[in-house]
Amino acid sequence: MEYDKWEPIYKKIVEDFGFSEDADANAAQLLSNLLIGPVKADLKDLTDIIKGKDTLICGNAPTLKKDLEQVNPSDHAIIAADGATSVLLEQGLIPAVIVTDLDGDVEKEIEANKKGAIMVVHAHGDNTGKILSFVPLLTNIIGTSQTKPPHGLFNFGGFTDGDRCVFMAHQLGATSMTLVGFDFDDDNVDELKKKKLNWARRLIEGFA
Ligand SMILES: Nc1ncnc2c1ncn2[C@@H]1O[C@H](COP(=O)(O)OP(=O)(O)OP(=O)(O)O)[C@@H](O)[C@H]1O
Ligand SMILES: Nc1nc2c(c(=O)[nH]1)N=C(CO)CN2
Ligand SMILES: [Mg+2]
């Protein structure tokens, strides 16, 4: 998504949650600085995995394990939203791409990364500690921001890890996007998560 189209949505999110745009921009700059060096993956590597492919986009709702029984994952390029990675690994599936702001089970993500998963790491004002701790341990990273992307970062659009998978797959030319592990009506979540899921629903429904 063009940044000009994303910006008004981002402004509404910032206002709704009371996030600081400056903190988001500083986090993006931090990630940009850390990605100068040999650990970066190329956008072409990511595009090659997604373009012209049927993608399976895995959210981390409690329904994920059961939803996976209804599809044939090996027919798809598997994209995991953060915590979905552990569930996939338990099923013997290694995601091709992990979209994460590093607040899930990062040890499992590092394991998947060592087995070849490209990490699409998102910078925002509330994850700079995680960025500093974990980015040096990763290889094959693409950096994203929710602000205007600084040097070397991308902004495909989207807010939560799950809906950012959808924006990314769409922008990079996926032939289809099958969503599993998305349950926006999950009541077993706290208020903040509920609010984030409502934004995820709203953003994903924009694609329907
Ligand atoms: N019921 C659900 N519970 C949790 N995640 C869900 C659910 N339904 C859909 N998702 C999607 O799965 C993604 C990954 O879930 P995970 O539990 O790892 O959350 P998270 O890392 O805290 O998400 P975020 O960092 O985006 O807030 C979420 O970003 C969300 O878009
Ligand atoms: N500043 C800020 N940005 C975000 C946050 C967050 O907690 N703080 N959480 C996100 C997905 O959950 C995505 N973006
Ligand atoms: Mg996350």
Could you give the count of β-strands? 7
Q: How many separate helices?
A: 9
Question: Average pLDDT, to the nearest integer?
Answer: 96
- Indicate how many domains the architecture comprises: 1
Going across the biggest sheet, name each strand in turn.
6-5-4-3-2-1-7
The main β sheet shows up as: 7 strands, parallel
Distance between the termini: 16 Å
- Rg value: 16 Å
Tell me which oligomeric state these chains represent.
Answer: single chain
Hetero ligands: adenosine-5'-triphosphate, 2-amino-6-hydroxymethyl-7,8-dihydro-3H-pteridin-4-one, magnesium ion
Shape: globular
Low-confidence stretches at least 5 residues in length (pLDDT < 50)? none
* Helix share bin: 40-55%
What is the succession of H and E elements?
HHHEHEHEHEHEEHEH
Molecular structure report:
The chain is an alpha/beta fold and 208 residues long. It has one domain (3-205). 44% of the residues lie in helices and 15% in strands. The chain contains nine helices and seven strands. It has a seven-stranded parallel beta sheet with strand order 6-5-4-3-2-1-7, sandwiched between helices. Helix 4 links the parallel strand 1 (54-58) and strand 2. The chain is globular, with a radius of gyration of 16 Å. The structure holds adenosine-5'-triphosphate, 2-amino-6-hydroxymethyl-7,8-dihydro-3H-pteridin-4-one and magnesium ion. Adenosine-5'-triphosphate binds next to helix 8 and helix 9. It catalyses: 6-hydroxymethyl-7,8-dihydropterin + ATP = (7,8-dihydropterin-6-yl)methyl diphosphate + AMP + H(+). Residues 31-186 form the 6-hydroxymethylpterin diphosphokinase MptE-like domain. Belongs to the archaeal 6-HMPDK family. Keywords: ATP-binding, Kinase, Magnesium, Nucleotide-binding, Transferase. Catalyzes the transfer of diphosphate from ATP to 6-hydroxymethyl-7,8-dihydropterin (6-HMD), leading to 6-hydroxymethyl-7,8-dihydropterin diphosphate (6-HMDP).
